[in-house]
Amino acid sequence: MNRTLTFEVTSEYDGERVVKFLREAAGLSYRLVRSLKQIHGSMLADGVPVRSIDRLKTGMTLTIHMPLDGGASVEPVKADFDVIYEDDDILVLNKPAGLAMHPTHNHQGDTLANAVAYYLTERGRACVFRAAGRLDKNTSGLVVCSLNKHAAAKLSGSFEKEYIAVAQGAFDGNGTIDAPIIRPDPMKTLRAVGENGEPAVTHWKSLGTKNGYSLLHITLETGRTHQIRVHFASLGAPLAGDEMYGGKTDRIHRHALHCAELHLMHPVTGEKMHFSAPLPEDMQSLADWIMKKE
Questions:
Q1: Catalytic residue check, 136
Q2: Nearest to residue 22, comparing CAs of 65, 83, 84, 81?
Q3: Distance separating alpha carbons of residues 247 and 227, to the nearest angstrom
Q4: Do 97 and 139 form a contact (C-beta atoms < 8 A)?
Q5: Using CA atoms, how far apart are residues 256 and 243, in angstroms rounded to an integer?
Q6: Which entry of 54, 87, 110, 136 is annotated as an active-site residue?
Q7: Contact at 8 Å (CB) between 136 and 224?
Q8: Overall average pLDDT of the 264-270 stretch
Q9: What does the pLDDT look like over 60-119, one tens digit per residue?
Q10: Residues 124-134 pLDDT 10s
Q11: Same structural domain for residues 179 and 245?
Q12: CA–CA separation, 126 and 104 (whole Å)
């Protein structure tokens, strides 16, 4: 089974080689173009097979037959998640808290990768799990997966997320946390703010505060591991429920962080797309408590 992409050659590429058009106009990665060169008939100009070194003419229709993955990269295991959007190139879903992204020595079958593999296999679309970005195990919210190599290359770094969080601290107005993040012990996942770390910038806006808890809207300039959790913990205001970084679990039993909004440009059509996911019950309950007027 192939994913077919079709492009019209513009005057800008008149007389140029196929490879230049594919890399520049079509946005195909070097690796994908190299793999297409090995498959006869994967590149057609007006229905006729061409090589990457052949030259194009204005008005030609260039068709690319992109082979899909042969099968799932992990064991398909059924698990619940909500599908927000799906087409031939991307899958946008709402990940529940408690579901790790990828298999590890501690989580072999109970991960989002396994769940997506099951979902796609059931629909005859088995493919390698390629999530653009990642969420911590106990972070809920939006995740976008690419369903082919071209989509994966185009999506990399070309999307924006907005988060809702609850921090244990009184925050008013808005602000920015600009503090590098280090990994003190390479054998542990724990991160910390420290000199000579990786640059990390977090923007926040307070939506409300009550009894030492604040409901926050958060956006990121960088995407470091545990960035939001580490940044607020460094201020003495860890996320509610985040035991790893000193949060209390009296009001929520996992760190209060949810990816609520996702903005991206479709990797094939170029369409600007926006997705949202409502707060799960545990965070909604906490948010309602903070925002409720006494």
A1: yes
A2: 65
A3: 15
A4: yes
A5: 11
A6: 136
A7: no
A8: 91
A9: 999 998 876 655 568 888 888 999 999 999 999 999 999 999 887 776 778 999 999 899
A10: 876 778 888 88
A11: yes
A12: 21
Banded pLDDT at 171 (limits 50, 70, 90): very high
pLDDT score, position 256 = 98
The single residue listed with the structure tokens 């989002």 is 112
* Among 67, 85, 116, residue at a domain's last position: 67
Cβ–Cβ contacts within 10 Å for residue 15, how many? Answer: 9
Integer-rounded Cα Rg, in Å, for the chain is 22
Q: State the SS3 of 93-111.
A: EEECCCCECCCCCCCCCCE
Region 182-207 average pLDDT: 94
Sign of CA dihedral 24, 28, 31, 33: negative
Q: Is residue 173 part of a domain?
A: yes
pLDDT confidence of residue 37:
87
Per the structure, the complete domain to which residue 144 belongs is given by 69-157
- Residue 40: exposure state from Cβ atoms within 10 A (0-12, 13-18, ≥19): exposed
- pTM attached to this predicted model: 0.85
> Does a structural domain hold residue 7?
yes
* One domain for residues 99 and 148: yes
Average pLDDT over residues 162-189: 96
Ramachandran area for residue 42 (φ above 0: left; ψ -120 to 50: alpha; else beta): alpha
